[in-house]
Design brief:
The chain is 41% helix and 14% strand. By secondary structure, it is α/β, with parallel strands linked by helices. Strand 2 and strand 3 form a beta hairpin. Helix 2 crosses helix 13.
Length: 342
C-alpha cells in the first residue's frame, strides 16, 4: 500500500507539472538584478567558446545538468530513458528522481535504470535527506547508488514540501550531522540539493561543516512545489495552507551567492527557474559550476530523446552567444563580465 501511494504521488506530480500553472508567484530568480556587459568588439569567434568543465571530478562537455524529476511509474521510466539518452549524446550530468519508491518496492527499480542508455554520464542516485530520520542509513544510500550504478548520491532537502504533503514527514532534527556521516562513509560524491526554495547562508555553513562539497541550490523563481501540492490538497483548508507559500523561498541568484560566500570551495549547481542560456550565463558568472534544468525538459522528455536534445542545444547556443558577446572563451571567464543591473 505504501509503495502504491508513492507511485500515485509520482503520477500526480507529472500530471500537475504538465497541466497546471506551477511557476512561483511573487518571487523571481533574482537573475534579472544582474547583467552581463556587452562587448561590441569581442575579438573572438563563436567557435572558440568552450563549454567543457569538471564536476565532482568528472569531465563534462556541457554545464547543463538534467536535474531530478521523476521515477517510480511506467511513464516516469520512459521519461528517464529519453533524458538519459539525451545526456549521453550531449555529455551532460543527470540527477535521478527520488528512489524511495524503488527502495520500498523493488519492482519499481527498472524505472530508474538508465545506465544501459547512458554508460558514460555523470549520474547521481537520489534519496530524501529526511529519510535519514525515518530508518534510512548508509545501507539504503548504498542500495540507491548500486541500484542505478550511479557515480554519486544526491540527498534532497524539501522540508516545506514534506510539511504540505498529507503523507509527508515532519521531523528534520539532526539531519546535518547524519548527512555528514553519509558523506564521510559513502566514498562517492554526495550532492545535497534543495527542490525549489533555495539554500541560505546558514544551511551552506551547516553543509560545509558536514563535509559536503557539492550543492545544488534550487532557488525560488521556478517550479513552486507548494503550488504543486496545492493541487494535491485533500480539502480547501489544506489547499489554502499550501497557497500561502506561493512566494516562499530564496531567489536562485541569492542562493548561489550564499553558498559561494559561505563555503567558497563548494561546487555549485545553479537551478531554480533558469529558462534560457543567458540566465545560465548569469548563474555561472555568479559562481555556479553548472546549471540544473528540470521542468522545461519534462514535456520534451515525454516525446523523445531528440526533443530533449533539441531544447538543450538551444540553451547551449544561447550560452555560447552570451559568451561570445562578453569575450568569454571559457565558462569561468563570464565572472569578469558580471555587473549589477542598473
Amino acid at each position: 500500500m505504501r509503495s502504491r501511494s508513492h507511485t500515485d504521488r509520482k503520477s500526480e506530480h507529472i500530471r500537475i507539472c504538465l497541466e497546471e500553472p506551477v511557476q512561483a508567484l511573487g518571487v523571481t530568480t533574482g537573475l534579472e538584478r544582474w547583467r552581463l556587459e556587452h562587448q561590441a568588439l569581442p575579438e573572438m569567434s563563436l567557435a572558440e567558446t568552450d563549454l567543457s568543465l569538471t564536476l565532482a571530478g568528472k569531465a563534462l562537455r556541457s554545464p547543463f545538468v538534467i536535474s531530478a524529476m521523476t521515477g517510480g511509474t511506467p511513464e516516469a521510466g520512459e521519461i528517464n530513458r529519453h533524458l538519459a539518452l539525451a545526456a549521453q549524446e550531449l555529455g551532460l550530468a543527470m540527477v535521478l528522481g527520488s528512489q524511495r519508491p524503488a527502495i520500498e518496492d523493488p519492482s519499481l527499480a527498472d524505472t530508474y535504470h538508465v545506465r544501459r542508455w547512458a554508460p558514460d554520464i555523470l549520474l547521481f542516485a537520489n534519496l530524501g535527506a529526511v529519510q535519514l530520520n525515518e530508518g534510512y542509513g548508509l545501507a539504503q544510500c548504498r542500495e540507491a547508488v548500486d541500484m542505478v550504478e550511479a557515480d554519486g548520491l544526491a540527498l534532497h532537502l524539501n522540508p516545506l514540501q514534506e510539511l504540505l504533503q498529507p503523507e509527508g514527514d515532519s521531523d528534520f532534527r539532526g539531519l546535518a550531522g547524519k548527512i555528514g556521516e553519509i558523506a564521510a562513509a559513502l566514498d562517492l560524491p554526495v550532492l545535497v540539493k534543495e527542490v525549489g526554495w533555495g539554500i541560505s547562508a546558514r544551511v551552506a555553513a551547516l553543509l560545509g561543516e558536514a563535509g559536503v562539497r557539492l550543492v545544488e541550490v534550487a532557488g525560488a523563481g521556478g517550479t513552486s512545489w507548494s503550488a504543486v501540492e496545492s493541487y494535491r490538497a485533500e480539502n480547501d483548508a489544506s489547499r489554502r495552507v499550501a497557497e500561502a507559500f506561493a512566494d516562499w523561498g530564496i531567489p536562485t541568484a541569492d542562493a548561489i551567492l550564499n553558498v559561494r560566500r559561505t563555503t567558497p570551495n563548494t561546487e555549485i549547481i545553479a537551478s531554480g527557474g533558469i529558462r534560457t542560456g543567458v540566465e545560465a550565463a548569469k548563474a555561472l558568472a555568479l559562481g555556479a559550476r553548472a546549471v540544473g534544468v528540470a521542468l522545461p525538459l519534462l514535456r520534451p522528455a515525454l516525446g523523445s530523446a531528440s526533443e530533449v536534445i533539441e531544447l538543450v542545444r538551444e540553451l547551449e547556443r544561447q550560452l555560447r552567444i552570451a559568451m561570445t558577446c562578453t569575450s568569454s572563451h571559457r565558462l569561468t571567464d563570464l565572472a569578469s563580465a558580471l555587473a549589477p543591473a542598473p
